[in-house]
Design a protein that fits this description.
single chain; alpha/beta; Aspartate Aminotransferase, domain 2; five-stranded mixed beta sheet; 17 helices; 12 strands
């Protein structure tokens, strides 16, 4: 039976049998016991499925990963230790030295650095394209060695909206999968697979956890990309893996399972980066209320954006669901119920005004974080982008007076009153 997203948030992924725990058990064990070496050997050969060591897989994680697969409409999923690890694994699972990635330029700074600096050191090059690029501009970015396309549904912190259908069509014209980081809207507000994305990633640290409690990430495979149809591009999936006795993942596990199985059995084995079962448990607590929390984050975000938009001390407001925003139509197409609670705005008074404003806030705390139950905010010029000059800040689209506010779950009247009094103090 197919359930609503609300029911999946609460119940998908784990169905206890008679007399078993109602809540997902935390399997706090690094290892698992077997009666014979032969039994264990079958696991190592990927002949049987089961658990042998928590660096690769743990039942608690798999219950939660199964819930995420259900939420995104995928066929397989895995949890990673962080969002950074999720994006690294998603790309590195299909890109080798000598390969190339096309990515939206409007993405999270950590991911931009991962692709442009760290993957480059490993021999994987990249071309960045504007999220607003035309089909011709997108086509021009692809090279014969391109193996993946990457973007964020709502970019952190730029708050641009990815035209998922357009990016997916471009990726598929060139025979590569589209990977979408869906951290900000979460599957409650957008399911990129329904619009053509092949692989979805998350920093579960954000709304999914939702309480600022545990760093984590996830990868979900749509099971739709036909690796074998592009076997020349993906030898790792389509030719025998010598480190697993000659298994060919795309043959043995099909479109539905090859990507996640390879990612688990090779990358988790060799690089670690698994999410602790305890964190998977916290993540699941967050997921159980995700469908109730997201609408409230969006309601508060829109109310704050609308308030700021008419305030004389504010130069501009960026929020995709605010009428008049450049991405309003795309936001309403891909996320008719709302996007997220993150709003950015620029104060007329520049850096000094931003610093004074933040100091006056009583409810919203200054934090390098977003997507938490508690409202938090940041002036990038004096924190994450501190090393940049005024000129560099302007060129990066992060003016000195920019403030990013992540609206939590408090009463919107209280948030607006807090912002109003802080803006009042700035004027003095
Ligand atoms: C935070 C974030 C990441 C990185 O996730 P961590 O869990 O901090 O490693 C990746 N992508 C987006 C969109 C993010 O907001």
């Amino acid at each position: 039976m197919s359930h609503t997203i609300d029911t999946k948030c609460v119940q998908a992924g784990y169905t206890p049998g008679n007399g078993e725990p109602r809540q997902i058990p935390i399997i706090q064990s690094t290892t698992f016991k077997y009666a014979t070496s032969e039994d264990m050997g079958k696991l190592f050969d990927l002949e049987a499925s089961g658990y042998f060591y928590t660096r690769l897989q743990n039942p608690t994680n798999d219950y939660v990963a199964a819930k995420l697969a259900a939420l995104e409409g995928g066929t397989a999923a895995m949890l990673t230790s962080s969002g950074q690890a999720a994006n690294f694994f998603a790309l590195f699972n299909i890109c080798n030295a000598g390969d190339h990635i096309v990515a939206s330029s409007s993405i999270y700074g950590g991911t931009f650095n991962l692709i442009s600096v760290t993957l480059a050191k490993m021999g994987i090059t990249s071309t960045f394209v504007s999220p607003d690029a035309t089909d011709e501009e997108l086509d021009a970015a692809f090279l014969p060695n391109t193996r993946a396309m990457f973007g964020e549904t709502i970019a952190n912190p730029a708050l641009t909206v990815l035209d998922i259908e357009k990016f997916a069509a471009a990726a598929h014209r060139h025979g590569v999968p589209l990977i979408v980081d869906n951290t900000f809207p979460t599957p409650v507000n957008c399911r990129p697979i329904e619009w053509g994305a092949d692989i979805v990633t998350h920093s579960t640290t954000k709304y999914m956890d939702g309480h600022g409690a545990a760093v984590g990430g996830a990868i979900i495979d749509s099971g739709k990309f036909d690796w074998m149809a592009h076997a020349d591009k993906y030898p790792g999936l389509c030719t025998p893996d010598d480190s697993y006795h000659g298994i060919t993942y795309a043959e043995k596990f099909g479109k539905e399972g090859a990507f996640i199985t390879k990612c688990t059995s090779q990358l988790m084995r060799d690089l670690g980066c698994i999410q602790a079962p305890q964190h998977a448990f916290y993540l699941n607590l967050g997921l159980e209320s995700l469908h109730v929390r997201m609408p409230r984050h969006c309601e508060n975000g829109l109310a704050v954006a609308e308030f700021l938009n008419q305030h004389p001390a504010v130069k501009s407001v960026s929020y995709p669901h605010l009428a008049g925003n450049k991405y309003y139509d795309a936001a309403m197409k891909y996320m008719p119920k709302g996007g997220c609670g993150v709003v950015s705005f620029e104060l007329k008074g520049g850096r000094a005004a931003a610093e004074a404003f933040l100091k006056e806030l009583k409810l919203a705390a200054i934090e390098t974080h977003v997507a938490d139950a508690r409202t938090c905010c940041l002036n990038p010029a004096t924190s994450t982008h501190r090393q940049m000059t005024e000129e560099q800040l302007a060129a990066a689209g992060v003016p000195a007076g920019l403030v990013r506010i992540s609206c939590g779950l408090e009463g919107k009247e209280d948030l607006i009153a807090d912002i109003a009094q802080a803006l009042e103090a700035v004027k003095k």
